[in-house]
Design brief:
The complex is a heterodimer of chains A (340) and B (319). Chain A is 36% helix and 20% strand. Chain A has twelve helices and 14 strands. By secondary structure, chain B is an alpha/beta fold. Chain B has a single domain, classed as 3-Layer(aba) Sandwich (Rossmann fold), CATH 3.40.50. Chain B is globular and about 50 Å long. The N and C termini of chain B lie far apart (46 Å). The chains are: A alpha/beta (340), B alpha/beta (319). Chains A and B meet through helix 3 and helix 4 of A and helix 5 and helix 6 of B.
């Protein structure tokens, strides 16, 4: 029988400490923690072992943890499929898909395999894998390295998904995901890896999935956002405040489970809703947030607004991409129209 | 066990699968059918599971395909639980969630059928990989059809298993039909086992209608795997005597093909060989009747069980 849900933990949660870390360093620290804490963890993917990852996120971990950290062939189906198989045997594999776009060649293993394992076996053979990937546009990235694909995964019951934006959330997401008994996809963003250092609290018990942040209070409109573009939403809120519009910004770190209580609680105060994501608007998770808000019977004083990429492919030239992706100015202008 | 008793045991084990499949077919056909949906029978392919499962230990992990009833039964899953699963009963091995084509029984080392062609190969690689760290010394055995070797995931799995010298036995049941299409028209090299050399692993073509030949090949492959010598690709040559699925009109069959296949099919063949070797005719007959009686009892018990409970349909999506 698989033992993944009953195996004794290696020991107590590591003691709390605070360090100043960049986003990528925070992920690294969290991976080091779970590798030390849970002997059933494995960490692997393309170039994650000896090279330490194309973004350096897994640097030093092979040296520290040996053969449990290793490189693989360029074979996403084998990476994800072997993670499912190892998890069925009681391991806790943490695998990296270098770009979210690359997961598309291996979706079978996530959608048909990982997501079904627990359900079909009625809990006796779950596949608690952690998949780390990163997505979104960065200057010069081509159309096959720029997509924001979270909605594809969020359509699939059985998969959890988290999109951390800050170093603390990036750290906590890894710890929570690896401790969780569900398959979890962590969607990072490469534009954040080398950002500013921030105080990150390490150690302590894993947080339960599903947290969000009320980043900014405001009475006029609720702005729900996630991922790197939430920074633009916050910048837009500052700009709106200068014009007398107080936007309340709810950042959903987790999209499954999503903290709808936070969203609906805010809406009860503001009665206006804008969702901001980098993904294409059509079929985006923003549409789901709007639908849930409406279904919850929330009375709205204005038609809700979805702000995302238009239904266009993402071009490589920065000047072209900038014309499509949500910007702080564009977000602020759209929200001002709604509120005004 | 002496050779004669061993072969009689093989005959009985194959009859159990045959009787199970015949019973599932009976339950699938007709207006009052207890089994609905797509069902893929393994009639004619019984020697593979019987030979291979004889070589597996309790820690080993078996991954099968949607044509997997026989593999489950040979691995020890009770017939009643299989039939109940096919019939959507609460007592089915997965309480009706898997159905004929996607059930799993980890408590028997049977990590499931798979309805996605080729998907089981990478998963088995992971089971073997985990065994490298958890101290079980597990061998992972993954079954696929001939057509599955043309899936990209299969290639990735074969390569990764070879690159890491993982203890995997890739068992390809070549029944000559890639669903409804001849495999030989879908490959440049119809001897599929030859691909093994390209991956840097051992490979062998095996008489897949002879349980003793399958057993010997799997024993050698598992021994190599346990010795750290890496994976093996076994190509079991066999034929299915029935359609790809129940209801398949089989218009693609060539003239005389099934007549020839019936002469080679494993149960009739082993029965003939045992008779020629001087086995007691009553023992040969007993191998069949015991199997048929077991399956009749299993089916009666399975069908007497209540249907799966709709109240539970939303359970176990998440931990």
């Amino acid at each position: 029988m698989p033992e993944s849900t009953v195996r004794e933990r290696a020991g107590e949660a590591p003691a709390r400490e605070t360090r100043k870390l960049k986003y990528g360093e925070a992920v690294n620290a969290a991976l080091a923690r779970v590798l030390a804490e849970l002997p059933e963890t494995l960490l692997y993917g393309e170039d994650v072992g000896k090279p330490g990852g194309v973004f350096g996120v897994t640097r030093g971990l092979r040296r520290r943890f040996g053969d449990r950290v290793f490189d693989t062939p360029i074979s996403e189906a084998a990476i994800l499929g072997s993670a499912v198989g190892a998890a069925l045997m009681g391991a806790r594999p943490i695998v990296e898909i270098m770009w979210a776009d690359f997961s598309l060649v291996a979706l079978d293993q996530l959608v048909n395999q990982a997501a079904n394992a627990r359900y079909v076996s009625r809990g006796t053979a779950p596949a608690p894998i952690t998949v780390r990937t990163q997505q979104g546009n960065a200057p010069g990235a081509c159309a096959q390295h720029s997509q924001s694909l979270e909605a594809l995964f969020l359509h699939v019951p059985g998969l959890r998904l988290v999109m951390p934006r800050t170093p603390q959330d990036a750290h906590d997401a890894v710890v929570a995901a690896v401790h969780a008994d569900d398959p979890v996809i962590i969607v990072e963003n490469r534009s954040l890896y080398f950002g500013e250092k921030a105080e990150v609290e390490l150690g302590g018990p894993a947080r339960p999935m599903g947290w969000s942040h009320l980043r900014r209070p405001g009475r006029d409109v609720t702005v729900v956002s996630w991922g790197a573009v939430a920074a633009q939403a916050l910048e837009a809120a500052d700009a709106l405040a200068a014009d007398g519009i107080e936007a309340e910004v709810v950042e959903l770190t987790w999209l499954n489970p999503a903290d709808m209580d936070a969203v609906l609680g805010s809406l009860a105060r503001t009665r206006r809703l804008a969702v901001v994501h980098e993904a294409n608007t059509t079929g985006g998770f923003g549409a789901e947030i709007v639908a849930r808000a409406v279904e919850a019977g929330t009375g709205l004083d204005a038609a809700p607004v979805r702000i995302g990429a238009p239904d266009v492919r993402i071009p490589a030239a920065p000047v072209l991409a900038e014309a499509l992706l949500p910007s702080a100015a564009g977000i602020a202008a759209r929200i001002a129209r709604m509120v005004g | 066990m002496d050779e004669m008793r061993r072969r009689l045991a093989d005959l009985h084990a194959m009859w159990r699968i045959r009787a199970l499949e015949e019973k599932v077919r009976e339950l699938r056909i007709g207006a009052e059918a207890a089994v609905v949906g797509s069902v893929h029978l393994s009639i004619g392919q019984e020697a593979g599971p019987v030979g291979a499962c004889a070589e597996l230990g309790p820690d080993d992990a078996l991954f099968a395909t949607y044509r997997g009833h026989g593999w489950a039964l040979a691995r020890g899953v009770p017939a009643e639980a299989i039939i109940a699963e096919c019939a959507g009963r609460a007592t089915g091995i997965n309480g009706g969630r898997g159905g004929s084509a996607y059930f799993t029984a980890p408590e028997y080392g049977f990590y499931g059928e798979n309805s996605i062609v080729g998907a089981g190969l990478p998963i088995a690689v992971g089971a073997a990989l985990a065994g490298r760290f958890d101290g079980t010394g597990r061998v992972a055995v993954t079954v696929c059809g001939d057509g599955a070797l043309n899936q990209g995931a299969s290639h990735e799995a074969l390569n990764m298993a070879a690159a890491f010298r993982l203890p995997v036995v890739f068992v390809c049941e070549n029944n000559e039909w890639s669903e409804l299409t001849p495999i030989e028209e879908m490959v440049g090299e119809p001897e599929l086992w030859r691909r093994a050399a390209g991956y840097g692993m051992a490979g062998e073509r095996v008489d897949g209608n002879d349980p003793a030949a399958v057993r010997a090949a799997v024993r050698d492959a598992a021994a190599r795997a346990r010795a750290g010598e890496g994976p093996t690709l076994l190509e079991l040559m066999t034929q299915r005597l029935v359609g790809h699925y129940i209801g398949d009109a089989e218009q693609y069959r060539r003239p005389g093909e099934l007549d020839r296949a019936r002469e080679r099919e494993p149960i009739a063949r082993l029965g003939r060989e045992l008779a020629e070797a001087g086995a007691d005719p009553a023992a040969i007959e007993d191998a069949r009747t015991r199997a048929e009686e077991e399956i009749e009892r299993a089916a009666a018990a399975a069908l007497a069980a209540p249907p799966a409970d709709p109240e539970t349909a939303k359970d176990h999506v998440y931990a």
